[in-house]
Amino acid sequence: xISGNDFIKQSLALxxxxxxxxxxxxxxxxxxxxxxxxxxxxxxxxxxxxxxRMMNEVVxxxxxxxxxxxxxxxxxxxxxxxxxxxxxxxxxxxxLATGITKAEANLFGGGMIHSPALERRVHALNERAIRLVxxxxxxxxxxxxxxxxxxxxxxxxxxxxxxxxREAKLYLATIQKLQSRTDINLEQEAFEQEAFWNRIMAEHxxxxxxxxxxxxxxxxxxxxxxxxxxxxxxxxxIQAMNRTIPLSKVTADSLAATLQVRDFxxxxxxxxxxxxxxxxxxxxxxxxxxxxxxxxIRLLRMFSR
Length: 305
Known about the structure:
Elements: H1 4-32, H2 38-62, H3 68-72, H4 81-92, H5 98-105, H6 116-148, H7 158-179, H8 186-211, H9 217-241, H10 247-273, H11 283-304
Helix pairs in contact: 1-2, 1-6, 1-7, 1-11, 2-6, 4-11, 6-7, 8-9, 8-10, 8-11, 9-10, 10-11
């Protein structure tokens, strides 16, 4: 059973990363519907605003509490997040909550001493997050079902909707695990997380490849190579789960590849913000995938210890 301190720290770190990811998923869905489906856009907007409210509480509770390595990892915000939001607001007219980003930039890590009152607040926050994420999962599932049945059009790829659905399910499962105070088996966690995130990294590269302007040949080639590389790493991670190759090899290979994709995502985000890349990629999506690569890098370094 995990300690009260670990429960608080791990819960808040999880929400700082995944809560922002979920609110951005809601925005990407909102921005992708046709005018005839304005009711779905409104539902997505309601989810986005609900996650904004949750994130305001998460940030308020996190200062001086979460570990500094989480704040330093670039998974909470990056140097480009605020600019990506500002450009995205200008392009879409959607009023993104940049105040959350500014508050996160001022967070400090801490080595808190257990507080029963804070533990109760975090437990209640987790319960609300479980309900909110569960509702978002149902919404994403309905959208994916309708798209696959050709009853709904959206500019988001069906694979992207499936992709963000899997991420929401991982978030939900992790909150539930924390609420049950389950001890984490680090080796088993490494197997599962590496298989999961290598697939996610592969799909990011493929989405980028498909959203670049056809004239961006060099970037398309790099994105394609990265997608193929992470497909191979996903297969390696599955082999490691079956004990046919050592996990340490997969971890080392995955870290090297994720450092490479992080640099690609960072350069791409800068290029999108500064209008140097021709594409149909919203700048916030570039920063979004950059934060996910930074999250995976922190996990891989933790698994390497």
